[in-house]
Design a protein that fits this description.
Distance between the termini: 55 Å
Radius of gyration: 20 Å
Low-confidence stretches: none
Number of domains: 2
Order of helices and strands: HHHHHEEHHHHEEHH
CATH superfamily of the largest domain: Nitrile hydratase alpha /Thiocyanate hydrolase gamma
Oligomer: single chain
Strand order of the largest sheet: 1-4
CATH topology of the largest domain: Nitrile Hydratase, Chain A
Shape: globular
Helix content: 40-55%
CATH class of the largest domain: Alpha Beta
């Protein structure tokens, strides 16, 4: 027999917001806007989301120029070809020798969670959200990313209606790499734009 006191399922009184959430869910189910199976599938997709999906998209773009063009033209449609979904309209921005892109959500923490998994704590912090807009080079330097002076840094602000994904530059020395080898090089931070993909 455990010496620990029984812990109730809901030790704290429900907040007004929590009660509204329960009521809204019940109403949507009752009106058949969606079903419990729909809800389960969404939860499973969220739980399965990880940076591996974003890495898969980028590796495909690095090895297939036609896909890369479609990805830059319409990110949502292109990732659908890989049976992926960003959860909102997706714009893909490409890093080049002259331009480096970095993502932020200045209002909260919106980002392509379905492609990158849960947001890192620093992405949600007020310090990151405010500073990366004002002094992006300083913030990038704190992540170990130092760019040439003639590289333009562009900061993209995600919203609830629009997500961004960075297409990092492919590192030299990876010409013979398989898709799987390329995917292993690509990190979540490179897909947000605070780091680059290092040469192997």
């Amino acid at each position: 027999m455990s010496d620990h006191a029984h812990q109730p399922d809901d030790p704290e009184p429900a907040t007004r917001r929590a009660l509204l959430g329960v009521a809204l869910r019940s109403l949507l189910l009752e009106k058949r806007v969606y079903s419990e199976d729909d809800e389960r599938r969404v939860v499973e997709r969220l739980e399965a989301a990880s940076p591996a999906q974003g890495a898969r998209v980028v590796a495909k773009a690095w090895t297939d120029d036609a896909f890369r063009d479609r990805l830059l033209d319409d990110g949502s449609a292109a990732i659908a070809e890989l049976d992926l979904d960003a959860g909102a309209p997706l714009v893909v921005v490409e890093n080049t020798e002259r331009v480096h892109n970095v993502l932020v959500c200045t209002l909260c923490s919106c980002y392509p969670r379905m492609l990158l998994g849960p947001q890192p704590a620093w992405y949600k912090s007020v310090a990151y959200r405010s500073r990366v807009v004002r002094e992006p080079r300083a913030v990038l330097a704190e992540f170990g990313t130092t760019l040439p002076d003639d590289t333009t840094v562009r900061v993209h602000d995600s919203t609830a209606e629009l997500r961004y994904l960075v297409l990092p530059r492919r590192p030299a020395g990876t010409e013979a790499f398989s898709l799987r080898d390329l995917e292993a090089l690509i990190t979540r931070d490179a897909l947000i734009g605070v780091t680059t993909v290092p040469a192997p």
